[in-house]
Write a structure and sequence with these properties.
Largest sheet: 3 strands, antiparallel
Number of strands: 3
Strand order of the largest sheet: 1-2-3
Order of helices and strands: EEHEHH
Number of domains: 1
Number of helices: 3
Structural class: alpha+beta
Helix content: 40-55%
Shape: globular
Strand content: 15-25%
Length: about 80
């Protein structure tokens, strides 16, 4: 762990390097993001063990993008609510 900014929640805290494409299936790769321990755990719990073993690269990239953009949707809704 090292200090940095979480790519999902944006907090400045200790971050863990997360391989978007599982190392066990794809080996060492450049598809990495920095996640705080909470977001990292959340990602693995949402994805589930079964899907972590799925060797389909498109599945993992699409899932990560959908998960990451969930935060953007919540931010937009919060802004809309704040200006109502």
């Amino acid at each position: 762990m090292r200090k940095g900014k979480c790519d999902k929640c944006g907090k400045i805290t200790y971050v863990e390097e997360h391989h978007v494409l599982p190392k066990a299936t794809f080996g060492e790769n450049d598809q990495k993001v920095d996640l705080c321990p909470n977001c990292h755990t959340e990602y693995h719990q949402e994805l589930g063990t079964k899907n972590l073993k799925n060797p389909d690269m498109v599945f993992h990239l699409l899932f990560y993008e959908r998960w990451k953009h969930g935060l953007l949707i919540l931010f937009i809704l919060a802004l809309a609510w704040a200006f109502l």
